[in-house]
Please model this.
Amino acid sequence: MARATITVDNYTYEGVDAHRTLHNLGELWAHHVHGRTITPDVMRRCADELVTLFAPLADDDSPELAPSEQLSYLGEQAAKRIDDVNPLQLERALREMWTPLAALASDANDASTSVSGVVAGLFLSDGGVPKTAVDSVEIGFRGVIGDRQATRQHHGRPWQALCLWSAEVVADLAAAGHPIRPGSAGENISLRGVEWSKMRPGTQVRLGDVHITLTAYAIPCYKNKQWFTDGDYERMSHERGDASRLYARVDQPGRVSVGDRLQTVA
Model:
């Protein structure tokens, strides 16, 4: 049975998008707290707000679990029940879930860190990797106009509208002998001069006249093993250091060109 499309403000969640967002709830929480020091009271309050949103969808609240485990459980249970949940409750959850996640980032020890850099490359494809370099792109709420994912199982959510990566990380990998170049790993935007360890989920940045919010680390895919001499594509994982690609949602669409500046939004 085809699942209904959910419209949340400027974003369209197709059935697979809503289902996978629920399934990824615990992961999104984990990405926002990864490597950060957050006040325990703030962490508990944010977790409680998310539980309030998603427990009705899961028809459970499982209060005995720690926040990360609890949210993973609720998200997975809600995903299983998605065909039976109240669509207005689902719409509300998909809209409001980003507020407590943003509060985590705002309270974190790195919240006041300023980040700047420049757009070194822009890439798109009709599906798959590597992507083709272009000089300028139009970005809408769904991402780069003309870009497409070959499969929607793990890609294409509104909060995965853009994929960003560091030009310096790619250059270091290439210098180590790996056959990789900008655009190889599916990134839409390559950034130069950015202190990549400071780019974390919850950070808001401006690229030219486009405003975006970083939402999650991009989990490495086996299709990228070809860019590594030993096939170890997990080098790109945030669990292995500061070399992860990042997903972002689009808060204000517009045009981005190579050479545009990146700056954090206060």
